[in-house]
Amino acid sequence: AEQKAEKARQDKANMPQVKGEKENEEDQKAAIDRARRREERGDIKQCNEGKWQFRFDEESQPGSVLLSIPLPKFLSSSLIDVDVHPTYVTVVIKGKVLRLVLPAEVRSEESTAQRSTTAGQLVITMPKVNENE
């Protein structure tokens, strides 16, 4: 009986837990803090914890780098945080970090992030420092 109860406890611990919006926001805040501390130390390594699909595009808008990330349509925008630096971009989505080194140096203060209300797609537009690259 004890073995059966122990097995049931282990199975329950291994089951994916459904989180409410409050728990997701707490995870999001913790992930953002972790990412910022790592960036302050200078540990800039590419990572894709959430296994998000993404695509860079430099041809459709000359002089800019576009980063497209298809996201679930019903994902709350409060669970998305974008931080653009001249040589890399960090996006924290639902507590998972997506950090990418950019193909060209960009002007981070002029970058914009837009989210499609119909499809949920996130598009980050980053103007290049040297538009001829």
Mean pLDDT over the full residue set = 86
What's the arrangement of strands in the largest beta sheet? 1-6-5-4
Strand content: 25-35%
Percentage of residues assigned to helices: 25-40%
- Given helix and strand content, the structural type is alpha+beta
Pattern of helices and strands:
HHEEEEEEEE
Radius of gyration based on Cα positions: 19 Å
Number of helical runs? Answer: 2
Beta-strand segment tally:
8
Poorly predicted runs: none
Largest sheet: 4 strands, antiparallel
Shape: elongated
Tell me the distance between the termini: 69 Å
Keywords:
133 residues; alpha+beta; elongated
Structural overview:
This protein is α+β, with helices and mostly antiparallel strands and 133 residues long. Helices cover 26% and strands 29% of the residues. It has two helices and eight strands. The chain has helices spanning 2-14, 21-41, and strands at 47-48, 55-57, 64-69, 80-84, 88-93, 96-101, 112-115, 122-127. The strands form two sheets. A four-stranded antiparallel sheet has the order 1-6-5-4, covered by helices on one side. It has a four-stranded antiparallel sheet with strand order 2-3-8-7, with no helix packed on it. A hairpin with a 3-residue loop joins strand 4 (80-84) and strand 5. It is elongated. The mean pLDDT is 86.
Topology:
Layout: H1 2-14, H2 21-41, E1 47-48, E2 55-57, E3 64-69, E4 80-84, E5 88-93, E6 96-101, E7 112-115, E8 122-127
Antiparallel strand pairs: 1-6, 2-3, 3-8, 4-5, 5-6, 7-8
